[in-house]
Amino acid sequence: MEEFEYTLENEQQFWDELDDIVTAQCPSHQLIDNALRSYLHFTTNFREEYLQSDHDVARCISILLQSQLFEANKQYIRTQLIYCLLQEDELATQHFIAGFLLLDGQQNEATFEMMNQEGCFPRLLELIKHGRAHDARLHRLLLEVLYEMSRMQRLTTEDLRQVDDEFVAGLLQIIEQLSDDVDDPYHYPVIRVLLVLNEQYMVASTSSPEEGQHPPSPLTNRVIKLLGIHGSSYMTFGENIILLLNRETETSLQLLILKLLYLLFTTRATHEYFYTNDLRVLLDVIIRNLLDLPNELISLRHTYLRVLYPLLAHTQLDQAPHYKRDEIVKVLSILGGSANAHWEPADETTLRLVERVAKVPWLRDDDIQEGEVARKLLGISLSPSQTASSISVVDVAAVMEKPGVQTPSRKTEFEEALHDKEGHMNSEPGTIQESNVENVTKKDSPTKRGRRHHPPPIPPMPRLESTKKLPPKTPPRRRTKLKVVSASELPTVGDENAC
Q1: What single-letter DSSP state applies at residue 406?
Q2: DSSP state letters, 267-334
Q3: Is the dihedral of CA 262, 309, 251, 278 positive or negative?
Q4: Cis, bond preceding 321 (omega within 30 deg of 0)
Q5: CB proximity list for 259: less than 8 A, separation 6 or greater
Q6: What is this structure's pTM?
Q7: Alpha-carbon distance 101 to 141, whole Å?
Q8: 342-367: per-residue pLDDT in tens?
Q9: 430 DSSP assignment
């Protein structure tokens, strides 16, 4: 195809010409290929002049996504651009291809499935590993593509074996290098990639081989390995995931963070990875979130409780002076259903997990035997079958939520319902709108919500001493140093770190 050289006088001419390219009639694959080449050639030529911001690039990609050219040939264009990503070495072209696949995949999960089937994961690892020094904007975009593709589906064992220590260490080093720049756009994408890789390792470790296949050799969780051996060099990452959990409202991301915390607190080499001050902030966040979760979010509540036990039993919080002991016991009593008559009865798993946390030695009084914890401390009674614990990495790894789902808030729901009631009561006589009556009725329905009493007080958002949102001001080093652990002492992903 003959390539044309464009001469533009202003930005409007750029957008007009781009519209002409994507609205061309293309009845054959050859003409579609010509149109795609023209699109990529034109956008990359004028990228520095008219597409300097991420917003401009996104607008440019959206024009193609919303065009008749794409609507009529979606599968073919996706396939061609995936092949381009696998083969293209020009950075500017990679930028538009990666941006297109990201935006398209967020609207259509099949795009990420196609990318996985065609072998894009190893290619993305390669581009990310060597790309930051050349184009920071492209590097961040590739991280976002890798994250979105990896959280939508399970990766193969072969793909996970492509992740080496160098790749994970490079991501952790990025976070350390940017620890003083709260506005740097790398923080969030880098952290999310590490979180989703950890989840993929957990899923791989808990999956049974298909019938007729030999069990694969155990995978090493590179994230846990690096933090176990070199954790003192990567402390900013730990601070940031606690801050992220403190403010995150998306359920799937909360679960990703909790899964990593669970492995860190159940792996001996990483028991003391976090600063003591950060562990206290984390405990405040967990207490607040446990009280704020609506009754129906059972799986998320279970996951918080599964993290709470090793946090209290295995970390520096086990050492005196014990932080928030009375508050923890009160929360456990509420969750067990004995301290608040307005809460719905707890399910059997919640009761078992609550009792397990209550067995942490420093939470018990000296005169309470371990077998009497549930009855004396929490005011609940459990049968022997209920007290038998089956907590393991399998339970934590299995909890999933669709990306984008926001975690409801018990406090917010109550305040909204109260506001609706006040609005109804303050309405002028004879002017009450029927829709308002319906809304109040729906929110107050006992069959829908179970209760309308004021929830227990929710602790305020933990405030960190630093005025920055991300990352926090580095607290003083703790007196004890992390134990140096050789790689041979670290558990592989296949090991059960059951609590």
Answers
A1: B
A2: SGGGTT-S-HHHHHHHHHHHHHHHHHS-TT-HHHHHHHHHHHHHHHHHSGGGSSSPTTHHHHHHHHHH
A3: negative
A4: yes
A5: 195, 198, 199, 202, 303, 396, 397, 399
A6: 0.78
A7: 10
A8: 566 778 888 999 999 999 999 976 55
A9: T
